[in-house]
Amino acid sequence: MVLLDFFSEKVGPYYYNQGLNDARAILDDKLDTITESFYELEKITEFD
Q: For 42, which DSSP code?
């Protein structure tokens, strides 16, 4: 087994999962920003 294959097999999943977690955090932040933008666009009504 080549050294690179060893590291890819043993450590690769950790970095892959970390990448997914990082992407999820970025997406969550962007979605929060979009949600806040919708609230900013709302108009005040007498029914609120």
A: P
